[in-house]
Automatic annotation (TrEMBL):
Coiled coil ranges: none
Occurrences of domain Solute-binding protein family (ranges): 257-597
Keywords: Signal, Transport
Pfam family, one: SBP_bac_5
Molecular function terms, GO-annotated: peptide transmembrane transporter activity
Gene3D superfamilies in the cross-refs: Dipeptide-binding Protein, Domain 3, Periplasmic binding protein-like II
Protein name per the record: Peptide/nickel transport system substrate-binding protein
Keyword Signal tagged: yes
């Protein structure tokens, strides 16, 4: 059950409910418990049951260990918890597309700006498929705060985000667990690995290879890129490194700042009729897609319109892309000039920081995607485009033609994806005096091959033996001890935006009740997770809130002494305090059957 959070529940403020923690959640559920009863199996006296879904150990050992920790603690307090393991693609399909889960444990891709929370939680997206609101949350106060942070001036935005984070900490559509350090190893055949974050486009540009090196061989533990490089798929990838190499965007992230990339530049106009802003964007002239067609303002306008509705108004109902939803929703209008194909004006329903984030989506070639759309429409009378599910956002058959620094060369399923340098890319134009050497890094190697390797340890061994140059996938913490002390290999550490989390399906009871979500969250020992799963605080930091440090208010830091919004573990050393847990669940409408050792619906 989702409530409008502008009002207290049954006369008790929700913050006091969370702060009460193990001391007891002393409020009545009133009529709500009638909705909670018997939801799982239909009988009032049934044991409380929950399913947890995650990925297999071979896919991400840390994720499944966290899930098993939660499963064990739920069972210890009398809940019938069942862990289901699915391949990463199946896991994402269950959670993001079908919404077929009670709880899941995974890693959220997040983003460099807290506006990622807009697409993650706004009620507008509760019924859509994709990374937008997979939790199904519909809370009016969170919607209001999400909208307010979008329009806030940069100087005031952190203060605007603070109450949003407080509301999220109370409602708990998900529980952030920890943020990992991103570890990779690389060979000494290249210099410049530490120039940029190795999960971004720029991490592969500006490198200096040895004289005889023509290919960069990067290892991935995930085989999905070898099967599908559709930039719109929600189940193919969580992060966009390959997409960013194939497709240019108007802007790119450089040292926490969005700088012009495909765009030569933009000028801001804050004197708009509403609270938003607008920018006049000038594209680089003479840029082409990989098939030789020019990149123009029409392609940019098409991209944003197409991401807003991938049926391109051909279906009865719009079919938004399951990715980049928050970016596109920040845009109000795009105006192009028939007499100037390299200039466009973009109006935003957002302040400048959020507007700049909207400039980082991949620019798609209009001629390729319109042709694909026309081929798929067929008989208009029978055409439908189920959001997030129809072929144009899931197919591996669409030509991966962009304008990025590398172009598609070949792929072999479960073996490799190979990209080759696009020699007509604008960063290679030595006569372009608008290029900034600190921003516009060049593709310096002829090929990049992403080779599938099954695990972190074997990937380290291949780099150490000279069989590869980089572990593109993040190394799991347990494998770090296997990194040899060798002059030919070096470890690189990057901060992460991603975070491990527990996700709740608020569409289903009992997870539709925020008090139940709070109670379950108190059965995860984050400090135990850091010690036993990640082995050291240097490898991951426990979290109370999902944004990065610069956006986290002091009282929401994990080591804060203020517990009002921080859910502490109800136990010690990874083991729950069963008595206190029973008291907590009984306070919110469940009863413990001592004879059977089960928590039951009251």
């Amino acid at each position: 059950m989702n409530r409008n959070t502008t009002d207290p529940v049954d006369g008790v403020d929700r913050r006091s409910v969370l702060a009460a923690g193990a001391a007891g959640l002393s409020l009545s559920l009133s009529g709500c418990i009638d909705s909670v009863r018997s939801v799982v199996t239909g009988e009032e006296d049934d044991q409380l049951s929950l399913s947890i879904v995650t990925v297999p150990r071979d896919d991400n050992r840390e994720t499944v260990q966290i899930a098993r920790h939660l499963e064990s603690n739920l069972q210890a307090v009398g809940i019938d918890a069942d862990l289901t393991v699915r391949s990463r693609s199946e896991f994402l399909e269950m959670t993001l597309i079908d919404h077929d889960f009670d709880l899941y444990v995974g890693r959220h891709p997040a983003d460099f700006d807290p506006d990622f929370l807009y697409e993650a939680l706004h009620s507008t997206y509760a019924d859509e498929s994709g990374w937008q609101n997979p939790f199904g949350l519909t809370v009016r106060e969170i919607d209001r705060l999400l909208e307010a942070q979008r329009l806030a001036d940069p100087d005031d935005r952190k203060a605007t985000i603070e109450p949003l984070l407080e509301e999220i900490a109370v409602e708990k559509p998900f529980e952030p667990i920890c943020r990992p350090t991103e570890y990779r190893v690389a060979s000494d055949r290249f210099e410049g690995w530490d120039n940029s974050h190795l999960a971004t486009r720029r991490g592969y540009l500006g490198l200096e290879p040895d004289d005889d090196v023509e290919r960069l061989n990067a290892l991935v533990t995930d085989a999905r890129p070898s099967r599908n490089v559709n930039p719109l798929s929600a189940t193919v990838r969580e992060r966009g490194t390959v997409v960013d190499l194939l497709y240019d965007s108007l802007g790119t992230l450089v040292d926490d700042e969005i700088r012009p990339w495909l765009a030569e530049g933009w000028e801001w106009d804050d004197e708009t009729e509403d609270d938003g802003t607008a920018a006049t964007v000038t594209l680089r002239e003479d840029c082409t897609f990989h098939d030789g067609e020019p990149v123009t303002a029409a392609d940019v306008a098409f991209t944003y319109a197409f991401l807003e509705d991938t049926s391109y108004t051909s279906a009865t109902h719009p079919s938004p892309a399951p990715r980049y939803r928050g970016h596109v929703s920040a845009i109000d209008e795009i105006e192009t000039d028939d007499e100037d194909e390299y200039t466009l004006r973009i109006s935003f329903d957002a302040g400048r920081e959020v507007a700049e984030r909207a400039l980082t989506v991949p620019i798609l070639p209009e001629h390729v995607w319109l042709a694909e759309l026309n081929d798929r429409i067929g008989d208009l009378d029978d055409f439908s485009a189920p959001q997030g599910r129809w072929g144009i956002v899931t197919s591996d058959a669409i030509d991966p033609i962009g304008s990025g620094p590398y172009q598609f060369e070949s792929q072999s399923e479960r073996d490799h994806l190979t990209l080759e340098r696009f020699d007509d890319h604008f960063t290679l134009d030595e006569e372009d005096d608008t290029l900034d050497a600190d921003v516009h890094l060049e593709p310096t190697v002829d090929e990049i091959r992403f080779t599938v390797d099954p695990g972190s340890v074997s990937s380290i061994e291949r780099v150490a033996s000279g069989g590869a140059d980089l572990t593109e996938s993040m190394l799991e913490a347990f494998s770090l001890a296997d990194i040899p002390e060798d002059d030919g290999i070096e470890r690189y550490d990057d901060d992460s935006w991603t975070f491990y989390h527990l996700g709740f399906n608020t569409r289903r009871m009992p997870c539709g009740d925020f008090r139940f979500r709070q109670a379950v969250a108190q059965l995860i020992d984050k400090e135990w997770v850091i010690d036993e799963v990640f082995f050291d605080e240097a490898h991951a930091e426990p979290l109370a809130t999902p944004v990065t440090d610069e956006w986290t208010p002091d009282h929401l830091e994990w080591d804060s002494e203020d517990d009002d919004f921080v859910t502490r573990f109800l136990g010690s050393d990874g083991e729950p305090n069963v008595t206190l847990a029973h008291d907590m669940f009984e306070e919110i409408g469940y009863r413990y059957d001592e004879d059977a050792g089960r928590l039951r619906h009251n």
